Structure formats: C-alpha cells, structure tokens
Amino acid sequence: MDINRFKVDVIAFGAHPDDVELSAGGTVAKLVQDGKKVAIVDFTEGESGSRGTPEQRLKESEKSAKILGVSFRENFGLPDTRLFVTEEAIQKTIIALRKYRPEAVLLNPPFERHPDHQAAHGIVRNAMFKSGLIKYETEFEGIKQARFRIRKMFSYQQSYEFETKASFYVDITDTFGLKMKSIKAFSSQVFVPGESDPEGPVTRLSRPEFLEEIESRAIYFGTLTGVRYAEPFLSVEAVGVNSLSDLL
Questions:
Q1: Which residue, of 47, 204, 214, 246, has the greatest Cβ tally within 10 A?
Q2: Distance of CA 122 to CAs 44, 86, 129, 236, 248, Å?
Q3: What does pLDDT average to over the chain?
C-alpha cells in the first residue's frame, strides 16, 4: 500500500460536524487556497443535536467539504454527547493520523462549554502520543501501519475564550466568505432563509443573529492584528521559527 495515498498537510478534527467550519473554516479554506491538502475528521454525527438528523448532517458535511475544498472528510460515528477518552476513540484517531500523516493538526480546545469538545481534545492528545509508539500496532485496509507523531497541534477557539492568550491569529479576510458559506451549508443547524426548518426547536445556532455573532467575533479577532477578519489558535506545544525573517 502506498502510505502517501492519503497524505495531507493538515487534519482538522471536530467533535461534531460543523465544529471545524464554525471555528476554523476560514483557516481551512486559506490552507487550500495556499495549495495545501486538508482532511476533516468528525468524531460524531451530531445525532443528539436538537435540530436535524444524522443523515442531514452527513449531506451538509459533504456539501461544506466541497465549499472549503478539502481533500478528504470522514466521520468516526462515535456517540454524540457521550464522547469520552476511550481506547476505541483513541485507536480510531491513531489510524487516521497514521493514514493521513499530516504536518499539523487542528483540534477542539482543552477547556470548553460542550463536554464532547473537551473529550475530543483529550482523544487527539492521547492518540498523537500513542501513534508514535512502535509497539502500538494498528492496521488500515489489512496492512500494518507505520508509527507517526508530530508536535504541531493547534486548538481553535469555540464558545469559551482560551484560558491564556491565543498563540497566533490567522488572517481570514480573503476566505471569510467561504467560511460563512460553509457554515450555511449546515442549514439544519443555522438559520438560512428558505432552507432552515422554521418549525424546529430554537437553539443558539438557529437564531438569525447567530451568524452576526460569528462575524463580530472574526472582526474582533482581526482588530487584534490589524486585519478585517481573523481566527485565533492556541498551540499545544511551543512554536518556533527558523528565523525572525519568517515573521516579516
């Protein structure tokens, strides 16, 4: 088996379909525009959400993936609202890491309002370490996988602010439109005139003003670095540069 068949530059993990779009959609779109290959991996189908069905959300995920231009998207099918740091979840994640062999990983933050988000962070952290162990064996398509580990893990911000300052902010001014379009692909969750179910339960996401909140946050983060729109990230480990020139 060609181990580079699924090779990507970045994996963006999300506890639920739409986590990545809401928090890092602009960054993902910008990576793709920069010529990078990106995979999105969702841990659950979001079946416990107040609105929509797993079938709807799967179709919405596929639609969003096309909008963002990602190379691969998969769903582990783990239980929504019952996501924990289990050996099953860790093993699925290790298989994905060894399959895609990314240069960097985006993931849910360590401290968050939704317990699944915190669990997803813990799963990825556990999996990244164990994925580098020679004696932790996994198979993909019937073939033993080679070990794999990187240290570039970046949490995106969700409901809660980071407990410390963000490590860096990504300018998404040029891709903010794609971010919003990818979010609107989830019309079962967010308000999209003519598409969303007007009779469904009212949630924070389904309110018409929710998309305004998303834009307001992006504008605020942008003001911190002098751009129109930005997304914040917290590095799990220290970030180094080869030269100060890299920051000019």
A1: 214
A2: 15, 10, 11, 11, 34
A3: 95
In a domain, 62, yes or no: yes
**Can you tell me the mean pLDDT for 39-45?**
97
**195 lies in some domain:** yes
Q: How far apart are CA 225 and CA 166, in angstroms?
A: 12
- The token pair at 137 is 């064996």
Query: How many other C-beta atoms are found inside a 10 Å radius of the C-beta of residue 211?
Result: 16
Burial (Cβ within 10 Å: 0-12, 13-18, ≥19) of residue 17: buried
DSSP state of 201: P
pTM above 0.90, yes or no: yes
- At 184-234, the pLDDT tens digits run 999 999 989 888 888 788 888 889 899 999 999 999 999 999 999 999 999
Residue 196 lies in a domain: yes
Query: The CATH number of the domain where 199 resides is what?
Result: 3.40.50.10320
Encode 141-178 in three state secondary structure: CCEECCCCCCCCEEEECCCCCCCCCCCEEEECHHHHHH
Structure tokens at 106: 């985006």
Domain that holds residue 64: 10-237
What confidence category does residue 8 fall into, taking pLDDT thresholds of 50, 70 and 90? Answer: very high
> Mean pLDDT lowest for which of 24-33, 48-57, 139-148?
48-57
Residue 64 amino acid letter:
S
